[in-house]
Design goal:
Strand 4, helix 7 (about 205-215) and strand 5 (about 220-225) form a beta-alpha-beta unit. This protein has one domain: Thiamin diphosphate (ThDP)-binding fold, Pyr/PP domains (Rossmann fold, 3-Layer(aba) Sandwich). The strands form three sheets. Strands 1-4-5-9-8 form a five-stranded parallel β-sheet. The protein has 13 helices and nine strands. It is of the alpha/beta class. About 40% of the residues lie in helices and about 10% in strands. Helix 2 crosses helix 3 and helix 3 (about 80-90) runs parallel beside helix 4. Thiamine diphosphate binds near residues 198 and 298.
Length: about 400
């Protein structure tokens, strides 16, 4: 890769001219249509359906956890639905994404089968990670979802690497490598990757190393801070500098930064889609401070002493599902002038998602737990003899540490 020089045809001054920046798209200057106006009616309804599916899935996970059917860590996404749905739907299906441990929403928005997702929650062999990952490790290669990661910030270099690989494929190899839905030898195309992180990851060294390289080498990764205001019980302004304007951090690494409201999925799309298109076209990174809020505790046991009920209620008043339902029932009209969504259609969608999640629960409950032998598969091995104090470990053999 020839790094920044490969963009020599695009004059930096032209690219950074306010009129050419995706943070100032034509529609904001009163010209042209908003991106969401070009989205088919059925797709908008699907966005609402996906947000409802995530909410229902999380509600049922919470119940199953109380019944001890789900064990280990479990972080619910309730309240943040528009963030995953609005950003993922701004991508092509084969643009890779990677996220942290609050990952069920991204998996479902990406199209993961709800049964495989729920079975993973239940630790069953039919789960997307064979029941060996659990809540924090949703993986779905056919849907270009590369996890689900538990170490705060660790996914951000991975997202950067995914974008580097995509750009290398396009610019250096010139053809795509074998991947789901792509046969070897197809012309590679320009891609972007999304690397989601929580506001708690903002001060992790890994993020800053990754952002530095992305800025230096023009790696087309978009860091999305799902800024729900808290890292466990620590409010962002107590632990992070410039919390009132995180785009300054992007500036320091020479990349585009934007603050986007993550509560209204249509508005989010209108602001985010131009950034994705720009990053793809010019093969550049970006950094988004996406304002959102989680309604529930950090994980399953959190007395939430760090915030008031009034604060939570205030954000519930901006609920993204209520907002989208209102827009589709009252503001957006179909070609015949009628509202895009009727009350009856809304009820049907609710019934549909309840049914999907119920079937997913049944599937998870009735699936077998992994075989004992699975303990020794899909684990790291020492590639070189005598490198480990506990001797050589070969794939499939009993781990000497156990
Ligand atoms: C490197 C590392 N340090 C600490 C933890 C413990 N930990 C788990 S979640 C979390 C808070 C992260 O908050 P944030 O990034 O804002 O994500 P949110 O939970 O709000 O989605 C911490 C400190 C961890 N998993 N990894
Ligand atoms: Mg947070």
């Amino acid at each position: 890769m020839t790094t920044a020089h490969s963009n020599a045809s695009i004059k930096p001054s032209a690219l950074s001219h306010p009129e050419n920046l995706p943070t100032n798209p034509a529609w904001k200057r009163g010209q042209g249509k908003r991106p969401s106006e070009l989205v088919p009616d059925a797709t908008l309804i699907k966005w609402l359906r996906d947000m409802l599916l995530i909410r229902e899935f999380e509600n049922r996970c919470g119940q199953a956890y109380q019944q001890a059917k789900i064990g280990g860590f479990c972080h619910l996404y309730t309240g943040q639905e528009a963030a995953a749905v609005g950003t993922i739907n701004s991508l092509n299906h084969d643009d890779p994404i990677v996220t942290a441990y609050r990952d069920h929403g991204h998996a479902l928005a990406r199209g993961m089968d709800a049964g495989a997702c729920m079975a993973e929650m239940f630790g069953k062999s039919t789960g997307c990670a064979k029941g060996k990952g659990g809540s924090m490790h949703m993986f779905d290669k056919p849907n270009w979802m590369f996890g689900g990661h538990g170490i705060v910030g660790a996914q951000t270099p991975l997202g950067t690497g995914l974008a580097f690989a995509a750009r290398y494929e396009w610019e250096v190899i010139g053809k795509s490598l074998p991947n789901p839905g792509v046969s070897d030898g197809q012309t590679a195309k320009k891609k972007v990757s999304l690397a989601y992180l929580g506001d708690g990851a903002l001060n992790q060294g890994a993020l800053h190393e990754a952002m530095n390289l992305a800025g230096l080498w023009d790696i087309p990764v978009i860091y999305i801070v799902e800024n729900n205001g808290y890292s466990m019980g620590t409010a962002i302004h107590r632990g992070t500098t410039m919390a009132h304007d995180l785009t300054k951090k992007a500036e320091a690494y020479g990349m585009l930064g934007a603050i986007i409201d993550g509560f209204d999925v249509i508005d989010l799309y209108d602001h985010f889609k131009p950034i994705v298109d720009w990053c793809r076209e010019h093969q550049k990174p970006a950094f988004i401070d996406l304002k959102t809020y989680r309604y529930l505790g950090h994980s399953m046991s959190d007395p939430q002493k760090y915030r008031t009920k009034e604060e939570v209620d205030q954000f519930k008043g901006k609920d993204s599902i209520d907002r989208m339902t209102h827009v589709l029932m009252n503001e957006r009209k179909a070609k015949d002038g009628k509202p895009l969504l009727s009350e009856a259609q809304f009820m049907d969608i609710q019934t549909e998602v309840k049914d999907i999640v119920k079937k997913a629960m049944d599937f998870a409950e009735n699936s077998p737990v992994p075989e004992m032998s699975e303990l020794f598969t899909d684990v790291m091995m020492n590639p070189q003899a005598n490198m480990s104090p506990t001797a050589v470990y070969t794939h499939g053999a009993k781990n000497p540490l156990l």
